[in-house]
Amino acid sequence: MALLGVFPGFVDRGLRGGNALQFTGGSNTLTLEGTNWQLNGGIGIQQAGSLTFNQTDDQTVANTISGDGSVTQQGPGTLTLTGANT
């Protein structure tokens, strides 16, 4: 999944906890392209799922990442997490 542009939270679409992105189980990869992207809302990783950030540019993710899953950084870019992650 490549994120380009602004993505509003999907509370009205039934995702738990009002997360903009919700990953449930399995392995998932999120590729952040460029530096002009914005994601409004949290990122949920549930049911022991995993999320791999794979990007070539250095990125800072200020969104809250929550759940019982795992987060991995892959690729040559540096990933900085600044949100109140749980």
List the helices and strands and how they pair.
Elements: E1 2-3, E2 6-7, E3 21-24, E4 27-32, E5 38-39, E6 43-46, E7 50-54, E8 59-61, E9 65-66, E10 70-74, E11 79-81
Parallel strand pairs: 1-4, 2-5, 3-6, 4-7, 6-9, 7-10, 8-11
Explain what this protein looks like in three dimensions.
The chain is mostly beta strands. It has one domain (18-81). The protein is built from no helices and eleven strands. The chain has strands at 2-3, 6-7, 21-24, 27-32, 38-39, 43-46, 50-54, 59-61, 65-66, 70-74, 79-81. The protein starts with a strand and ends in a 5-residue tail after the last strand. Mean pLDDT is 77; it is low at 1-16.
Element pattern in H and E: EEEEEEEEEEE
Largest sheet: 4 strands, parallel
Can you give the mean pLDDT?
77
How big is the Rg?
A: 12 Å
Structural class: mainly beta
| Shape summary | globular
Which residues form runs of ≥5 with pLDDT under 50? 1-16
| Beta content | 35-45%
Number of domains: 1
Count of discrete alpha- or pi-helical segments spanning 4 or more residues: 0
**Helix content class:** under 10%
Major β-sheet strand ordering? 1-4-7-10
First and last CA, distance: 23 Å
- Please tally the β strands and state the result: 11
